[in-house]
Amino acid sequence: MDTYFYHQIIRKTVIGFGTLFNNIEVRHTDENDNNVSAIRVPLSYAPAQKLLQRARQPDLNTKVQTSLPRMSFEMMGISYDPSRKSGVTQSFKAISSSDGKSLRKVYLPVPYNLSFELNVLSKLNDDSLQILEQILPFFQPALNVTIDLVSSIGEKKDVPIVLESINQSDDYESDFNSRRTIIHTLRFTAKTHLFGPVADTTDGLIKKVIVDYYQDTNVSTAQRAVRYTTTPRAIKDYNNDDTSTLNGEINDVIGKIVVSDASSLTVGTIIRIDEENMKINSVDQNVLQVTRGYDNTIRTLHLHDASIDVINSEDDLLIKPEDDFGFNDEKIFYDIGGNFTSI
Question: Global pTM?
Answer without folding.
Answer: 0.57
